[in-house]
Amino acid sequence: MTKKQNHWSVLRYLIYFTQVGVSVVTPPILCCFAALWLKRRFALGNGTVIIGIVLGIAVAACSLRDFLRLTERKARESERKEKWH
């Protein structure tokens, strides 16, 4: 692998790391804020916040699962390319 290819590989993994971080952290935060807003706006109980937290964690887990599937698929494609070359 040349130095330039290695450079792009490091950048790609940095982008992947940032993407997974944002896609796992953002949903719980947004769902919690939305649940707190709904609780204050419509005078709902604490169950709203609990539902928001659970929903945010579920969305983050689905996002992480999809990301892991994507990286697994990319790794398999990379292995196939290496076998043919």
Task: Provide a descriptive summary of the structure in words.
There is one protein chain. The chain has helices at 3-42, 47-84. Helix 1 packs antiparallel against helix 2. The radius of gyration is 19 Å and the shape is elongated. It has two helices and no strands. By secondary structure, the chain is mainly alpha-helical. The protein has one domain. The two termini are 13 Å apart.
What order do the helices and strands come in, and which of them pair?
Blueprint: H1 3-42, H2 47-84
Structural class: mainly alpha
**CA-to-CA gap between the ends?**
13 Å
Main sheet attributes: strand count, strand direction, barrel closure: none
Number of strands: 0
The count of domains is: 1
InterPro entries: ATPase_put
Organism: Agathobaculum hominis
Protein name: AtpZ/AtpI family protein
Pfam family, one: ATPase_gene1
